[in-house]
Amino acid sequence: MADIWDQLALQIKDWGQEIGFAQIGIADIDLNHTKDHYLEWIKQGFHGEMHYMVKHGSRRYQPDELVPYTIRIISARLNYFPHSHNSEAVLKDDQKAFISRYALGRDYHKVMRAKLKKLSDKIQKEAHKTLDQSFEFRLFTDSAPVMEVELAEKSGLGWRGKHTLLINKEHGSWFFLGEIYINLPLPVDKKVENHCGTCTSCMDVCPTKAIVGPYKLDARKCISYLTIEHKSSIPLEYRKQIGNRVYGCDDCQLYCPWNKFGQMTKEDDFKVRHGLDDIELVECFLWTEAEFIKYMEGSAILRIGYEQWLRNIAIGLGNAKTSETIVNALKVRLSEASPLVKEHISWALAQHNFHMN
Asked: Residue ranges for the binding site for tRNA?
């Protein structure tokens, strides 16, 4: 019987390649080694307003509590880095809006889930045909209490970097992860060695010093958290460091030495939409809500909503070089803005020595 499971594991990896995944790995469900670190992270409040990190309790590090029949987890890696305008050039141009490269195309949740479903269908068909065993499964793509980096690391897809993201020796870190929880006793893959060594590039370059120690992220300081997960006013102490980053932050990846091996995605769905890789702050600040919804349809950015979008861009405009165009754009938005956006516009105008009476 062992040969049958070995053969199926090889088939699953081949199918994954056919479907478009960069790599497939298989892990068992033992995550007990993560429990203490995770609970300490929560205790220190590093999760900020992400209350969902707490409410699911032990299901995060005990996969069979989340999905009772689970004995193995298939992890999948999908490259996303698009052919886009140079990231560092956009970050240096304070008139432009920098958007994290993962969000320039179609919402990855939809793309990854569709591919995982295709892979699951193939496994189910094979299990029914040759194994005389029912195949029970559940798919996840950043959508439930799943420790995806730890599971991907256990399944041999890479190692956790000091910035807490997964790094692959041949491909860097520009990829998404997804999982299939299953009830089949497949052979598991071996963990790979950590190759971060003494490098601290990701920690040194972080604009807000959110990586407070190796493998330890204080999300409350992280620009990705502040511009996406944080729904209220952005703390004053981080606004200057945010610069022109209006959705997410890629700095820790841009300066990771392993990303010189990063590969462009082959997925059409991840191609840049609406010129978002090189767009003016003023242009996207003056979009109406209808235009925002139109341009962001099918994008992960739509999830933050129009108000949060304006809040983020107001900070970018406050950090830009003073010009009549920028000041006028901020003033135009001020009268109709929500209290949250108005606060950030007022701050931005003050950066240009324009104070409201």
From this structure: 231
